[in-house]
């Protein structure tokens, strides 16, 4: 087994990474359809970023205990249901225990604590951590420990590879990366459900903010028999989304089909969000929003943009002054956002600092959502949010990824960008979350949603 040295500073800890086989400046290879080709490498090709690192500790911090909840809560019953027409589906369950150490759940129900071979050197996890789901329509019951934080339940249509590194503060797991086309898992169709279970309270989430991969859905059953469901996407959603992205050729002179990642056989295995696609090749969408932003700035230099904070602050007026959007009650103005800022909603003018006023913090998601959905120049768009879903994504430029992803959601649940919960009345639930402190079981469906299994 090979290992690779690690050397960077990440999240305040010494860690590292990224022996890049293919420089980011090099244009990725593409299929005739315009999909990017995955070219998985070995351990030398792994990258470590905040998005794909599960950082553990070596200490024994006191486990957080929620008020009125006993620290000795029961284990969590999870049902893994295979709706794919194949018997090669694997599941992997990882997380942090009550002491902050990283672990995987093994097929025999015991916890595996991966250990690196030497300090600052990554190595592949070789312990048996894959859970086989069996053939179509079969269910695998697993029992999760009473405490799991920052958990993920991974699913893949074949084996996934995970790596471990110790930076001196504890073992950390290097998880599969969607933005590294050389990642050892780059040509595997995979995805995950986020999960935290502490002191009897379960929080599980399905999101498409970063990418769309293998189709997942879930149903939480409470002890009184009531249920919560996030149905997820329709079966074969990646293929359908990529077909729709291909149809955009010529609409705005952008290569939307290149959001799709294909394996060696040319079959699409995932769809990247525009923000993650920007990380692979920044030039593709680098100036995508520039003209639109300039038009917005021009319009609101002569009239007010009203932001409904949907809070005690009610509505606040904003106006472009000295090339910044200045809003009442906000401690600082908003510079023109770049395309990267709009895709991620968390950088540039949309970065929220600890000292910002509550009004400023309420304005950020509403303005960014208006950009993503392209509603700022529509009739009625001078009040945000005020227009309904029928007005979203109706003009170019817009976030076609979000538009298309939502069109294939069975129940409309699952964020396609960070502030997808912004809406006029505050009642539309776009999140893919199920949560309860009275859980009987959690069922996760892979390959097709619960209603289509």
TrEMBL record:
Record Pfam families: Glyco_hydro_64
InterPro entries to which the protein is assigned, alphabetical: Glyco_hydro_64, Glyco_hydro_64_fam, Glyco_hydro_64_N_2, Osmotin/thaumatin-like_sf
Residue intervals of the GH64 domain: 73-433
PROSITE patterns linked to this entry: GH64
Annotated signal peptide: 1-16
Regions that span the bilayer: none
Statement: the UniProt record of this protein carries the keyword Cytoplasm: no
Key words, A-Z: Signal
Cited Gene3D superfamilies: Beta-1,3-glucanase, C-terminal domain, Thaumatin
Protein name: GH64 domain-containing protein
Source organism per UniProt: Fusarium oxysporum f. sp. raphani 54005
């Amino acid at each position: 087994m090979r290992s690779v040295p690690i050397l960077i500073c990440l999240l305040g800890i010494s860690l590292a990474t990224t022996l890049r086989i293919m420089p980011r400046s090099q244009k990725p290879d593409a299929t005739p359809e315009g999909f990017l080709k995955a070219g998985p490498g070995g351990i030398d090709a792994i990258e470590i970023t905040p998005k794909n690192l599960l950082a553990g500790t070596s200490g024994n911090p006191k486990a957080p205990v929620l008020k009125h909840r006993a620290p000795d809560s029961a284990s969590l019953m999870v049902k893994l249901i295979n709706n794919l027409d194949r018997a090669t589906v694997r599941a992997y369950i990882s997380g942090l225990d009550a002491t902050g150490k990283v672990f995987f759940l093994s097929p025999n129900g015991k916890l595996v604590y991966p250990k690196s071979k030497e300090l600052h050197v990554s190595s592949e996890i070789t312990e048996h951590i894959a859970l086989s789901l069996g053939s179509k329509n079969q269910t695998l019951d697993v029992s999760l420990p009473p405490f799991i934080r920052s958990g993920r339940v991974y699913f893949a249509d074949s084996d996934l590879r995970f790596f471990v590194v110790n930076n001196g503060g504890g073992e950390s797991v290097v998880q599969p990366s969607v933005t590294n086309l050389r990642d050892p898992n780059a040509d595997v169709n995979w995805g995950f459900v986020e999960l935290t279970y502490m002191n009897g309270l379960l929080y599980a989430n399905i999101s498409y903010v970063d990418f769309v991969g293998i189709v997942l859905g879930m149903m939480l059953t409470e002890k009184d028999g009531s249920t919560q469901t996030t149905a997820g996407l329709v079966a074969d959603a990646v293929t359908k989304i990529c077909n729709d992205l291909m149809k955009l050729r010529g609409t705005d002179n952008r290569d939307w089909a290149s959001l799709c990642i294909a394996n060696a056989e040319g079959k699409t295995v995932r769809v990247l969000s525009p923000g993650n696609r920007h990380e692979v090749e920044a030039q593709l969408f680098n100036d995508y929003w520039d003209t639109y932003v300039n038009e917005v700035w021009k319009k609101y230099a002569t009239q007010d943009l009203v932001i409904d904070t949907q809070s005690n602050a009610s509505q606040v007026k904003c106006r472009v002054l000295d090339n910044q959007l200045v809003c009442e009650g906000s401690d600082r103005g908003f510079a023109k956002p770049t395309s990267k800022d709009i895709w991620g909603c968390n950088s540039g003018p949309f970065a929220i600092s600890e000292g910002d006023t509550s009004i400023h913090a309420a304005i950020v998601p509403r303005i960014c959502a208006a950009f993503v959905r392209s509603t700022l120049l529509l009739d009625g768009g001078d009040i945000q949010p005020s227009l309904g879903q029928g007005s979203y994504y109706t003009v170019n430029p817009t976030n076609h990824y979000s538009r298309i992803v939502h069109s294939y959601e069975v129940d409309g649940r699952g964020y396609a960008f960070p502030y997808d919960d912004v809406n006029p009345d505050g009642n539309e639930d776009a999140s893919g979350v199920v949560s309860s402190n009275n859980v009987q079981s959690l069922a996760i469906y892979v390959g097709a949603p619960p209603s289509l299994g």
